[in-house]
Amino acid sequence: MIKKKIKIVAEAGCNHNGKIKLAYKLIDKAKQANVDAIKFQLFTADETVTKSAKKAQYAQAVTKTNQSQYDMQKSLELTEEEHFKLHKYCKKKGIEYLSSAFDLPSLDFLKKLKIKEFKIPSGEIINYPYLKKLASFNKKIVLSTGMSTVNEISDTLKFFKKNGLNKKKITLLHCNSEYPTPYSDTNLKAMLYLNKKFRLPVGISDHTLGIEVPIAAAALGAVFIEKHFTLDRKMVGPDHQASITPSELKKMVTAIRNIEKALGKYEKKVTRSERKNINIARKSIVAIKSIKKGEVFSLQNIGVKRPGTGISPTKFFKYIGKKAKKNYKYDQLI
Hints:
alpha/beta
């Protein structure tokens, strides 16, 4: 695996329900959870969806039944000015602001904000006009691969290369674009496949319920983990029910950081913390009955017991048949 520090991103998405005050609260909660970044979504309905477009099945179940996708998107918009304020607020709070752009004007706006990297939503992986503009920015790319075939991913990477984007700037995210994603469809090992196939850093954009999958992704070598979160799963909106709560987010971050520490390095050695236990846990050659000087050591009079401060049991059979050079009491180290 290509390995670097795990970047944990709290996906606020549109869980602010189009209200900047809720977006501020999401930033506060993300900061309290100790994530590296919070990510929003930047779009205008007029640029991204036709008025006849249907809502996804999962969105139909948790939003107004008579509302079109266009109307739903319209209700979830935040203006560029509001995103500018969120970016400024993130700086004040000491958390990185990220946003997924869903249209060309939004890409231009994010470029003006000078964000560190651009997250490509899964639905845009075949949007070549969008990808060409993004390639021209020559910035770091995080490419989500939900709903994509291997050939589509390969074609997109070739398109980036053709348009001058260095492959080293790209991170691939395994993703399943169902909200919530059934565990049986998560296929987390696909993340490992993407790493081996394309020789790029990998991560996950996770839509399962709970925090198990992001933690498992960390153990498998993810370098970028994105997870939707909400202030309250009972709120009305397309993504709330498939999101985790602030308290769950905090638990997830703690678990991932613990996993990150536990992974360590690709080596096996005695660690500093366990070194003090060697003489306690290991054993030495001892007398299992009284032995007189000149008596021959045998299986009947010597054995192996703790502590490990005496002669190592690795030499046990070398002592069998040798004569004792002094008297030994029961349990005395040889």
